[in-house]
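Listing S7. Sequence submitted for prediction.
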Amino acid sequence: MATSSSRTLGAWFTAFEREAFRLETLDDYSRSGGADAYQAFLAGREQPESYQAAEWLRTVGDATEAGKRVYRVHILSRPLTDYLRFELSWGYRRNMTAGEEFFILDVTEKPNPIPDAPDFWMFDSTATAVMSYDDAGKYLGSEFAEGDLIAEFRAYRDTALAQAVPFTEWWARHGE
């Protein structure tokens, strides 16, 4: 397997062999894609066709059909922001149809167990792309963590998963 520094983040989505894990920590990613769908959601309109047939669904579907796992934990608190209402009710439910798994770590009534954890993607527990966003939720890029930092990101993942609940369970209690 190539080292993380020899692949781009996009290349890892087809190159990973077993699992791709995502930790989401922000309340708003509205400037990072899907702006038309987000605006449609806010206006009470139907999901745009382009959103329903997003390339991400093919990426996830190809991976899960090959027996790979794509899953994420979102750390959040209630009340949900407009963006989180959109992401969870439209995005997560759409992506689940392709096999992506979602978990929620709700810190509304308890402290965040990993307050310093950034957003990241981890592939096969060996390559971690740390995601950067501006204050408005615009994606700025990613940088791969190297060496001893990988263990720190595994600990973030394991802690988040240990304290999260499956999205469908959380949504049944708190969804809108």
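Caption to Listing S7: primary sequence and predicted structure tokens for the chain studied. The CA atoms of residues 88 and 118 lie 20 Å apart. The first strand starts at residue 19 and ends at 24.
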